[in-house]
Amino acid sequence: MSSSSPDERTLVLIKPDAVRRGLVGEIVSRFERKGLRIDAMVTRTMHADFADQHYAEHVDKPFYPPLKAFMTSGPLVALVLSGDQVIEVVRAMIGSTDGRKAAAGTIRGDLSLSNRENLVHASDSPDSAKREIALWFPELG
Ligand code: CMP
């Protein structure tokens, strides 16, 4: 019997730019090929109040109004992924925020040229994963 701790979960959003560009399959495929499990997946359009809740820590930042306009501009795909150290693994796979600077081989590094329209959001810590999964998928709580 393994004595390792239970797998973690993280929340991922495949953002409206990725949906518009037809990159959902490419992005989901990368996570699947890595060996991560998809515990939930839904297409949804984020409305204004929900954006404020999801991005609670950013609502006062100067980049928030255009970020909110972008994130509410069309459908996105929300997923819960699970696997060993999934929060850190997914953050490494998506790369740094600015697609122009993200390393080649990462999702943003290979496919984005923007620090706003950067294709993917992923929880950045166990606390944010818990909060974001409860917000997007309350039925998983
Ligand atoms: P995300 O991982 O969803 O978390 C916050 C988002 O804000 C980030 O990805 C980017 O889409 C956006 N963002 C962060 N910093 C900036 C910035 N300086 N200018 C524009 N957008 C930003």
TrEMBL record:
It comes from Micromonospora coerulea. PANTHER family: NUCLEOSIDE DIPHOSPHATE KINASE. It is found in: Cytoplasm. The lineage of its organism: Bacteria, Bacillati, Actinomycetota, Actinomycetes, Micromonosporales. It catalyses: a 2'-deoxyribonucleoside 5'-diphosphate + ATP = a 2'-deoxyribonucleoside 5'-triphosphate + ADP; a ribonucleoside 5'-diphosphate + ATP = a ribonucleoside 5'-triphosphate + ADP. It comes from the Bacteria. Keywords: ATP-binding, Cytoplasm, Kinase, Magnesium, Metal-binding, Nucleotide metabolism, Nucleotide-binding, Phosphoprotein, Transferase. The gene is ndk. It holds the Pfam family NDK. ATP binds at K15, F63, R91, T97, R108, N118. Signal peptide: none annotated. The active site is at H121. This is Nucleoside diphosphate kinase. Residues 7-141 form the Nucleoside diphosphate kinase-like domain. The keyword Magnesium applies. Its cofactor is Mg(2+). Its EC number is 2.7.4.6. GO terms for molecular function: kinase activity.
